[in-house]
Amino acid sequence: MRCPCVKALLLSTLTMGLTIEASASDSPWSLGVGVLNLSSPYIGVDNKNYGLPLVNYNGERLRASIFNLEYDIYEIERLKLSFATELGEDFLKASDSKDSAIRMLEDRKISIYSGAKLSYHSPIGIFNTSALYDISGHSEGSIFKINYSYPIRLTNDLTFIPSVGTTFKSADVANYYYGTDNYNVGNTTDLSLNMILSYKISESLNVTAFLRHIVLDKDISNSPIVENDSVTMAMLSLTYKF
């Protein structure tokens, strides 16, 4: 049985791509479907494909999907402070691995992080930074994220958004997901490259392609339960605003 946490993780990630055309409709609601391919850094875990239902709300101050939420607390000119809750990007369902040693491990459950997010919309792009703590109690650690994106409107209906980012994980987080009895992981920093291509078919219908590649910190890739030094996520989605 496939881990339902994967669906939660990707609904959260897709929000950044599915809401870029939200201002084109009077309604803050959108529904859709997506097809996703996800790789794993853990030994013996193959790439997996998933079909996902998508529900999003993009209001004046509140933005949410089923598994993530942002609420704007304060805004002045181009600077915005928000309360944010989101799912982490790390998890392991041990039974998914073909490696007998990995299958003997306990599952590394996906965490829910909550904290503050600061966004700055400048003439040269959008800068985001967030400081979040694991409120689910799985890792009992913190993450700090920085991201830069530059939306490019290729045509009236076609938008391209490249972005780069980094995620700092405290030792508690990194060790929970990638440590073993004989291997402790300290603070780590992952790098990511994201690309979103969104096409507005009509005023209500939008198709979005999303690609995310994460380069893992060396301390993570050197873990005895890890065989890949990077992970990739790709998704194609269709959403309808009403």
UniProtKB/TrEMBL annotation:
UniProt protein name: MltA-interacting MipA family protein
Main location: membrane
Sequence similarity: Belongs to the MipA/OmpV family.
PANTHER family for the chain: MLTA-INTERACTING PROTEIN-RELATED (PTHR38776)
A single cellular component GO annotation: cell outer membrane
Key words of the record: Cell outer membrane, Membrane, Signal
Domain of life the protein comes from: Bacteria
InterPro entries named among the record's database cross-references: MipA
Localization of this protein: Cell outer membrane
GO biological process: peptidoglycan biosynthetic process
Stretch forming the signal peptide: 1-24
Pfam families for the chain: MipA
